[in-house]
Amino acid sequence: MIEVSHLSKAYGTRQALADVSFTLEKGKVYGFLGVNGAGKSTTMNIMTGCLSPTSGTVTVNGISMAEEPEKAKRFIGYLPELPPVYPDMTVEEYLFFVAELKGIPKGMRKAEVERVAEETHLTAVRERLIRNLSKGYQQRTGLAQAILNHPEIMILDEPTVGMDPQQILEVRRLIAGLRAEHIVILSSHILSEISAVCDEILILANGRLVARGSEEELTAGDGSGELHITLHAKDGVTEEKIGRLLADAGITVTDMHRKKETLEEVFLRVTGGMRNDGEETAV
């Protein structure tokens, strides 16, 4: 379990996060959704111990990230938005290097590197220099290092950036497969990405957590949405007569339901459809 409590972060006079709290548990893929500058990456950097908060706490399985960072970090695999790869290493060299940093016993490193290379479809390029790989393959290499040693918590910041559609589908399947044994936290500003793989969605805007729930819960709304009615009426009924005909015994309503908000509409509503700089957001 990972618990974030009253997290705030300020850069000078700019408030990047303001009193953000939530708890995440094993067995789900959680999506962090928000426009650029909403606070997603700042939250993730604090959760992984890469950044200190101005106030608030992060605990990982009961271990304080501030008080025992090395111990807490052992539970976390992290893929930042810019993969932490070394361009002058081959994929294989880099993965062995990370395996050593993570303390994987020497006798187990080869099997573990082979496992993550296969899972992220890197086997064919494992002997190539990272600098000569496409952005998509560099992103896969970053993902491979994050899942080395089976960390209990996976934090993935924009994991499919630079990938082609086929690669995106493969990574989505990999993320879905991590659900059973891990807490998976996926950050994106792409609504379809969040919708495709996440069990629960946390929406951030202007450094605040403004909504949380499954897609079904978020899009259900409060029941005050637009009403759609399908009518079967006698010939000659005009639009002008519809209001009166609804109360007429000769009209049968065969279908009636309230329009549910889409995830995009929920996102725009709770964030105000604005970036932090006040410009309108196009999603």
Walk me through this protein's architecture.
This protein is of the alpha/beta class. It has 2 domains: about 1-220, 3-Layer(aba) Sandwich (Rossmann fold); about 225-260, no CATH class. About 30% of the residues lie in helices and about 25% in strands. The protein contains 10 helices and 12 strands. It has a 6-stranded mixed beta sheet with strand order 6-7-8-3-9-10, with helices on both faces. A hairpin with a 2-residue loop joins strand 4 and strand 5 (about 65). Helix 3 packs across helix 4 and helix 4 crosses helix 5 (about 135-145). The two termini are about 30 Å apart. Residues about 275-283 have low confidence and may be disordered.
How would the blueprint of this fold be written?
Layout lengths: L1 E10 L2 E11 L4 E5 L6 H8 L7 E6 L2 E2 L4 H5 L2 E4 L11 H11 L4 H14 L15 H13 L5 E5 L7 H14 L4 E6 L2 H7 L2 E6 L2 E6 L1 H6 L6 E6 L9 H4 L6 E7 L4 H9 L12
Parallel strand pairs: 3-8, 3-9, 6-7, 7-8
Antiparallel strand pairs: 1-2, 1-4, 4-5, 9-10, 11-12
Helix pairs in contact: 3-4, 4-5
The CATH H-level homologous superfamily of the largest domain: P-loop containing nucleotide triphosphate hydrolases
Discrete helix count: 10
Write down the CATH class of the largest domain.
Alpha Beta
Strand content: 25-35%
Structural class: alpha/beta
Rounded mean pLDDT score: 84
Radius of gyration: 24 Å
The total tally of domains equals 2
Strand count: 12
User: What is the percent of helical residues?
Assistant: 25-40%
Strand order of the largest sheet: 6-7-8-3-9-10
Characterize the largest beta sheet: strand count, sense, and whether it forms a barrel: 6 strands, mixed
Choose one word for the global shape: globular
Our measurement of the CA-to-CA distance between the termini, rounded to an integer number of angstroms, reads 32 Å
Low-confidence stretches: 275-283
Second-tier CATH architecture of the largest domain: 3-Layer(aba) Sandwich
CATH fold name of the largest domain = Rossmann fold
H/E order of the elements?
Answer: EEEHEEHEHHHEHEHEEHEHEH
